[in-house]
Amino acid sequence: MPKLSGLLRQTSEKFPERTAFIEPEQGRITYGALQQLAARLSQLLSDNGVEAGDRVGVCLPKSILSVGAIFGILEAEAAYVPVDVEAPENRNGYILENCQAKALLVSSDQLETYASHFEGKCSVREIPGLPLALLILDFQGASPLDIPSGLAYILYTSGSTGLPKGVLITHRNAFCFVQWAGQAFGISEKDVFSSIAPFHFDLSVFDLFTAVLHGASVVLIGSQMAKNPMQLAALIDEHHISVWYATPTTLKMMLRFGRMERYQHDSLRIVLFAGEVFPITPLREIKARWHTAAFYNLYGPTETNVCTFHPIPELIPEEQSAPYPIGIACPYARCRILVDEQSHLLKPGLEGELLVAGESVMAGYLNLPERNERAFWTEQGEQWYRTGDIVRVDNQLEMEYVSRKDRMVKRYGYRIELGEIEAALHHHPDIAEAGVVSVQPEGQDVQIIAFYSTKAPETALPVLALKEFLVQNLPAYMVPDKLVHLVETPKTTTHKVNYPALMQLV
Predict the structure, then answer these.
(1) Are 103 and 56 in contact (CB under 8 A)?
(2) Residue 193: which residues within 8 A CB-CB, separation 6 or more?
(3) pTM of the predicted model, to two decimals?
(4) Domains of the chain, each with CATH number or no CATH
(5) What tens digit of pLDDT does each residue of 177-209 get?
């Protein structure tokens, strides 16, 4: 199985002068120049003791530089660990220590923050001519980690214990998806990709590696631009983007506020969406507007990569009211349905938890043996990942998403464990108890509501101060929409938070 680390080198030899990545208003880089940047950073890592299998953190804004960092890490035969530059320093610090990162590539303006955070555990290497630095990290005394061979990257997702958990993805796991996507969507060097997802979000794997495999160009869209629907609409026109991959939330935002009628979008050839359910009304509207593009619904948690897909018909019937299915399994994946702790082959009418096996399924969660045991269903010696998603099989043997079986929600395409928000609230010195619920009014986005009681029961905390506290402990997308003070948190007979009672208060 080819490695992701070889893609850039091969394409740079084939298309050295072709534009690889475009950073709007900043510049662009050719495949040949990107390979030189990656090789320079790879050599820097090797000269500072990074070896095959080591983990290297990337704490950089989305840019040509961060793309070079990712490919440089892979070329050094190490695994990249992207962290959210906008997330709290303590959360990122936990991630880097949890994976025992050997090094961290960090922007110059955040160097002092992370050098201070890892004081006594790091040394600094400045990089002449580039606005970034290398922190060499030393976690002496930490217990050895069980790292799978061929590890390509680790993506950290929200954890129900209050701490993010690392998903181990090998080159084999990622490459089978990257290769299939290129073939399934007819990708060529003539395509221009959008790259909306941040690199710590699994949607970015398609943008980075499928494009590079085929020599396509990629327009890098940073976090602020990704929140500006008019800028997004203008980018498609300006750069003649042909392949667009985003969450339904982004597409709905563009419909409402993008003023898309001002722009020419006939360059669009493929539109992919994933990460959450796409209600049929806005899907019908954007499909009619982007009439030149073929639309596909992609599905798959971080742990499996994309594992199912469904093409959206050219014309959505007026009588269609339910969201489209998540579809059938990709060629490298297999699906079964778990009902009452018995697994079944797909058959019409069957409803239960979706199980996934195959090449794309993760190697496991890092350093969480008990969590790994719960995450997999073993049958006849084969492991099937338990997605936690309830699906129903229709008469065409396609799978329809129904609901979650646990306390995880999806918002803006991100997976959010409500327990992690509760854990952050419990860290506040004045909070005694907390319970977090979610609601999704019809046709609207998921809303997160946090209920809390204080150690001085009658005293509510200032909302702005409490939100500021949460921003310092959680990524912005996890901060609740609403904070509600209760004199007493409702309890079950076993003295646990009574979530159904909280839902009655929404």
Answers:
(1) yes
(2) 207, 210, 211, 216, 217, 218, 219, 241, 242, 243, 245
(3) 0.88
(4) 4-170 (3.40.50.12780), 416-503 (3.30.300.30)
(5) 999 999 999 999 999 999 999 999 999 999 999
